[in-house]
Amino acid sequence: MNSLLNNLFAGRDLVIATKHKKESVIAPILEKELGVTCFVAKNFDSDKLGAFSGEIERTKSAIETVKEKCLLAMEANNCDLGIASEGSFGPHPTLFFVPADDELVILIDKKNELEIIARKLSTETNFSHKELTNQAELQEFLIEVDFPAHGVLLKTNSTGKSRVYKDFENTNQLIHIYNELVDKAELVTVETDMRAMRNPKRMKVIEQATHLLIKQIKSICPSCDTPGFSVAEIKKGLPCESCGLPTNSTLSHIYSCKSCNYSVEKMHPNKQKTEEPMYCNYCNP
After folding, report:
1. Per the domain annotation, does 226 fall within a domain?
2. Does 68 lie in the same domain as 34?
3. What is the mean pLDDT of residues 128-152?
4. Is residue 47 domain-shared with residue 118, that is, in the same domain?
5. How many domains does the chain have?
6. What angle is formed at CA 84 by the lines to CA 63 and CA 204, rounded to 5 degrees?
7. Same domain, residue pair 115 and 255
8. Are 121 and 138 in the same domain?
9. 136 Cβ partners below 8 Å, 6+ apart?
10. Which region among 133-142, 183-192, 232-241 has the lowest average model confidence (pLDDT)?
11. Does residue 109 sit in the same domain as residue 148?
12. How confident is the model at residue 2 (pLDDT cuts 50, 70, 90)?
């Protein structure tokens, strides 16, 4: 750790805003890289801001939620340094029909007036759901999503009120509950449990996002020495190697400091100076 980061973070307590055991992947990284002492927020219910098990809908954006989660944990535990993460699941923004896990991790340091965010978008997820018509479909789904290593939820909504069944320990227990619901003429949906402690694939992406956060923290502004000198804008327009016209591929990254507003443009971040014609809207309309 360089002397600047050592002066900012070493020896300080850092609260992790989680009730889903995210500290298992977050704490070792932060303690090693920043020299902090991590602890988990006591009596902290992050599900109040939205629950992946479905009982409570998230009403704010992911970025608003992760910031609020972190600040609430810091306030409740009288700590001026905190970290939180928030995930979103759905179709990948550019790879059609491919599910994605979009994880945000934020570090807030009130003492030094820092707020640093990292994002990891990953296709390494088992995010899925299926409306069931028979037990065979359920068993196929369980194999596809790697149950019981990864958790699943059963949901019913045929009576007008959604009910969620979770924390199944084995296949026999799950099938027993499913048959009970079917006997009651319930329409049953099965879906992956995306709570971090029930989804190792998601936990891995949170770990990757935390490493990216450390990279952001270690990126120091050349003008004022503030951590978090990071990409604020991505410029498209990499020229086609055939016709020379701009494509939608990345031409440059604009790095900016939130503290002093110093910025710099770094050309060709992907180490490409031209793009293949197959990605050109003119050569390959």
Report:
1. no
2. yes
3. 96
4. yes
5. 3
6. 100
7. no
8. no
9. none
10. 183-192
11. no
12. confident
Which residues neighbour 172 within 8 Å (Cβ) at sequence distance 6 or greater?
none
CA 52, distance to chain mean position in Å, is: 13
Which tens digit of pLDDT belongs to each residue from 99-113? 999 999 999 999 999
Which region among 58-62, 114-118, 139-143, 192-196 has the lowest average model confidence (pLDDT)? 58-62
Average pLDDT, the chain: 92
For the segment 52-70, what is each residue's pLDDT rounded down to a tens digit?
666 667 778 999 999 999 9
In a domain, 223, yes or no: no
Beta strands in the chain (DSSP E): 13-16, 37-40, 81-91, 99-109, 114-122, 129-131, 152-156, 163-165, 188-192, 230-236, 250-256, 263-267
Give the residue carrying structure tokens 């973070």. 9
279: left (phi over 0), alpha (psi -120 to 50) or beta: alpha
285 occurs within a structural domain: no
Say which residue the tokens 């850092």 belong to: 14
- Domain of residue 66 covers 3-125+198-218
* CA distances for 18 relative to 22, 57, 178, 196, angstroms: 6, 17, 30, 10
Is residue 101 a contact partner of residue 202, using CB atoms and an 8 Å limit?
yes
| Same structural domain, 85 and 29 | yes
Amino acid symbol at 175:
I
Q: Are residues 83 and 202 in the same domain?
A: yes
List strands edge to edge, sheet with 250-256. Answer: 230-236, 250-256, 263-267
Residue 135 forms part of a structural domain: yes
**Rounded Cα distance, 140 and 121, in Å:** 27
Is residue 99 within 8 A of residue 123, CB to CB? The reply is: yes
39 and 120 part of one domain: yes
CATH of the domain at 101: 3.90.950.10
